[in-house]
Specification:
Protein name: 4Fe-4S domain-containing protein
Pfam families: CdhD, FeS
Number of domains: 3
Largest sheet: 8 strands, parallel
Keywords: 4Fe-4S, Iron, Iron-sulfur, Metal-binding
Strand content: 15-25%
CATH class of the largest domain: Alpha Beta
Strand order of the largest sheet: 10-9-8-7-6-3-12-11
GO molecular function: 4 iron, 4 sulfur cluster binding; metal ion binding
CATH topology of the largest domain: TIM Barrel
Domain 4Fe-4S: 1-59
Radius of gyration: 27 Å
Structural class: alpha/beta
Length: 447
């Protein structure tokens, strides 16, 4: 039975040293009990107390590290079923499939393509995380050669999939030695074979099957001192994969069932790439740790990465940009000055429309603690005083000669008081960002 925060607190030094990053030992104990931190964060815990508490206080889902230092992928150690309860901590890795049967030239082209798969959305760079090398050739030597080339060219964490233990071992202990690839044997293999492979390679292992099968296999591996395990439903239907994801997460978090407290790898790399993309998005939403996908095309990959970005933001902390005066394009003292909030979606919506209009502009992002225009106005954070203070703090008057600001149409009601407060001329712009381009080309240019 899991220990309560008070049970854990009784074993702590009770010195409130704050070295764990929390204000008191009781706060630390509560965090440990909820699975949000581990005992290793307390530097003053005695060995005896650590031994008593370690197993009972371990997070319900294990943290698994894949890939070489200094930038490995970490998956697992999630603490909630629903992100609004707290947040999800470790975004799933998106691993793009590569066949080892490709020749050297084709592999080189894929490496170049992989590096170019980089997209910017609301100020964040999105990219695939890993490469999943599939042993289609059936040859250990061919798989090792492909792994060597991919590792040298990309240096990203890798998943190795093969139905042969010797092929996985040759690649993991040869060209990927020390790189901690995730090893998935898709053929028959005993727990002893998998344990030997994991120990020899010093890498995490993935076991596949239904929930009962993987639970038994995880327990068997645990007895063989193999702890870094990822589980998978294998190649199955979308409905069965989603059921596996949900059942295992609930078993780990609600029932504290340790054998299913492992991150999950799912396969979304079928022949129908559009269906695979939709599956991948669903798996990201429903607890996947690694999504293996063949979505090499940008129009298929972006929805997966966007879904991951949306799901793995902190719902209790608005996504913000730095509140300041931004210069979009080659601005001049005659360029228009638009005002918005520092809520990321608001700011980047305005920025995108300005760039599309190809009219150089200043954009003043007012600090509303990451709230949108109407929310900031309703909370009295986007008002004549805060806008005036932002204009002054950013020396806007020294950068634009016309001393005119354009405010969102939704807050037209503050235009008169803003003009009085700031001494600037105030124009009321469109209510929606999509109207900015036409407004700048007609109304602004007509001034």
């Amino acid at each position: 039975m899991a220990l309560t925060g008070l049970d854990i607190y009784k074993q702590l030094p009770k010195e409130n040293c704050k070295e764990c990053g929390l204000p008191t030992c009781l706060a630390f104990a509560m965090k440990v009990a909820s699975g949000q931190v581990g005992l290793e964060e307390c530097p003053r815990l005695t060995d005896d107390a650590r031994g008593e508490l370690d197993e009972a206080s371990a997070p319900p889902q294990r943290l698994v590290t894949i890939g070489p230092d200094p930038d490995p992928v970490q998956i697992g150690q999630e603490t909630v079923l629903f992100r609004h309860d707290e947040k999800f901590h470790h975004p799933p890795a998106v691993a793009l499939t590569v066949s080892d049967s490709l020749d050297e030239s084709a592999l080189g082209d894929l490496c170049t393509e992989f590096k170019a798969l980089e997209f910017t959305r609301v100020g964040e760079t999105l990219r695939p995380t890993m490469v999943a090398l599939i042993n289609d050739s059936g040859s250990a030597d061919t798989m090792s050669a492909a792994a060597q080339m991919l590792h040298s060219a990309l240096s990203v964490p890798m998943v190795l999939l093969s139905d042969k233990i010797d092929a996985l071992s040759a690649a993991a202990t040869g060209p990927l030695s020390g790189a901690r690839p995730l090893l998935m044997c898709t053929g028959e293999a005993s727990a002893d074979d998998l344990a030997a492979l994991a120990k020899q390679a010093g890498a995490p292992i993935c076991v596949a099957g239904d929930a009962e099968t993987v639970a038994d296999r995880v327990e068997a591996l645990g007895k063989l001192e193999v702890k870094d395990v990822v589980i998978s439903p294998g190649r199955t239907s979308t409905a069965e994969a989603l059921q596996f994801l949900t059942q295992t997460r609930r078993a780990a978090l609600k029932s504290k069932f340790r054998p299913l407290g492992c991150p999950v790898l799912v396969l979304a790399d079928g022949d129908d790439k559009v269906a695979g993309m939709l599956d991948a998005c669903a798996f990201v939403c429903k607890y996947a740790g690694v999504v293996v996908s063949n979505a090499w095309d940008g129009h298929l990959l972006v929805p997966i990465l966007t879904t991951r970005q949306n799901i793995y933001t902190d719902p209790q902390k608005p996504v913000q940009v730095e509140p300041k005066l931004y210069e979009i394009g080659e601005v001049t003292p005659q360029s228009p000055l638009l005002v918005t909030t520092n809520f990321s979606l608001s700011y980047y919506s305005v920025e995108a429309e300005v760039e599309t209009a190809r009219i150089p502009c200043y954009i003043l992002a007012v600090d509303t603690e990451g709230t949108s225009v109407l929310t900031g106005w309703a909370a009295d954070k986007f008002n004549p005083e805060t806008i005036t203070n932002a204009l002054t703090a950013n020396n806007a008057g020294d950068k634009v000669e016309h001393h005119t600001v354009i405010i969102p149409g939704h807050v037209a009601v503050i235009s008169a008081s803003l003009a009085e407060e700031s001494g600037w001329k105030v124009l009321v712009g469109p209510k929606e960002a999509t109207g900015i381009g036409p407004y700048l080309k007609s109304d602004w240019n007509a001034l």
